[in-house]
Design goal:
The chain is an alpha/beta fold and 382 residues long. It folds into 2 domains: 2-281 and 370-378, Aldolase class I (TIM Barrel), CATH 3.20.20.70; 284-367, no CATH class. The chain is built from 14 helices and 10 strands. The strands form 2 sheets. Strands 1-2-3-4-5-6-9-10 form an 8-stranded parallel beta barrel, surrounded by 8 helices. A two-stranded antiparallel sheet has the order 7-8. Strand 2, helix 3 and strand 3 (82-89) form a beta-alpha-beta unit. The protein is globular.
């Protein structure tokens, strides 16, 4: 079983498990190779914007649908070290449901259809996150009711398909602050009652906000800051208390938005006892920087300028900007770069670049591997 395997691995290694956002094919290949090299389970955590079924338009990663994404990985993951994980599944978690302005009933049905595609394709883990609502601001109890509905549906469907599935619950509002202990205990106790009453296995992970927040190309949350937040307990004090509560409930705590933390802060993750952490945009930025860097080094200014234009014009950088940002247009292009790797314009540009630069994708993949390795090394996964 996947759950037992992850539990045993973490117990033997005293580590923090790593979830890698599959930002590109090079990022996926880098993850598989590192997992094989160090005999380490790595979670590939894919959002619905990155990969989804054809019904929802697929995703921006390689323009793959759920089946194509899974087939690509399963074919290469010979040693079965990769955990295929849906990140932030739920209503209004992709552009289709938002653009159609779906009501709650239709958005929940749409989310269920997406989960079915995940289970059919062979995903191992599903994150149930119905915290997004484009029509209102749901209370914690309303969110939990939606969690129950999706959780029960996915578990029942997985049983029908004879799939071994583990679950992650919890929201990820990038406040940069911590959850309160009361919030955590309330959520865990509510889930315990639901699972017991419905004879459903308890979730494996719960997302806990520990003071991380990604903006632009840095982590601006309280975790990595020497400045204390008023009325907030310091992370090094509160996190062990939260982990103790999770241990009491038999659930692993997962941190999201771990990108761009200092290496010293990353080394504290296993010391504090954080069970798992997700990283995504940093790896996309690492590949973008590598591409821009080699085009500049080789003096292919025509390709460099064209790539920067494509990335900037996509406007995918907008959601990452801080208030009163000082980011340059170049910075914005770097932030948005990985979103356009599979656009028609960028595919044509990459073809030309590959003709001019021998071994380009191998070079890019190795740069991403270095970025992923920094986390693996700090998390005691090597």
């Amino acid at each position: 079983m996947i759950q037992q395997r992850l539990e045993n691995y973490r117990k033997n290694k005293c580590c923090t498990l790593l979830g890698v956002g599959p930002m590109s094919k090079n990022c996926i290949d880098a993850s598989i190779e590192l997992a094989d090299q160090y005999k380490t389970p790595l979670m590939l955590i894919v959002s619905r914007r990155q990969i989804d079924s054809d019904k929802f338009g697929g995703g921006y990663v390689e323009n793959w649908n759920t089946k194509q994404f899974t087939e690509y990985i399963l074919k290469r993951d010979i040693n079965k070290n990769i955990i295929l994980a849906r990140d932030h599944g739920g209503p209004w978690q992709n552009e289709y449901e938002k653009s159609k302005q779906l009501n709650l009933i239709d958005a929940m049905k749409s989310a269920k259809d997406s989960y079915c595609s995940d289970i059919d394709a062979g995903f191992h883990m599903l994150h149930i996150d119905p915290s997004v609502d484009i029509h209102s601001s749901p209370t914690i109890d309303q969110i939990l009711e939606r969690v129950y509905e999706l959780y029960d549906f996915c578990w029942s469907y997985a049983q029908q398909k004879k799939r071994d599935i583990i679950f992650e619950i919890g929201t990820e509002e990038q406040s940069g602050n911590n959850n309160t202990i009361d919030e955590l205990e309330y959520t865990l106790e509510s889930m315990r009652k639901f699972c017991k009453n419905n004879k459903i296995p308890y979730p494996f992970f719960i997302v806990v906000q520990v003071g991380t927040r990604v903006m632009e190309m840095r982590n601006v949350g309280s975790f990595d800051s020497p400045i204390r937040v008023i009325k907030e307990m310091p992370p090094e004090i509160q996190i062990p208390q939260m982990i103790e509560i999770c241990n009491q409930y038999g659930i692993f705590m997962k941190e999201h938005n771990t990108d761009y933390l200092s290496t010293d802060s990353l080394r504290w993750q296993p010391r504090l006892g954080i069970h798992a952490a997700n990283v995504a945009p940093e790896f996309g930025v690492a590949e973008t920087k590598a591409l821009v860097g080699i085009l500049k080094e080789k003096n292919y200014i025509d390709l460099l300028d064209e790539f920067l234009r494509i990335a900037y014009d996509s406007k995918k950088w907008e959601k990452w900007m801080t208030n009163n940002t000082s980011a340059s247009d170049f910075d914005k292009s770097i932030i948005a770069g990985h979103y356009v790797f599979s656009s028609d314009e960028c595919i044509n540009l990459k073809k030309e670049a590959n003709q001019r630069i021998k071994g380009l994708d191998e070079f890019l993949k190795n740069q991403v591997k270095s970025s992923i390795f920094r986390y693996m090394n700090a998390f005691n996964l090597t």
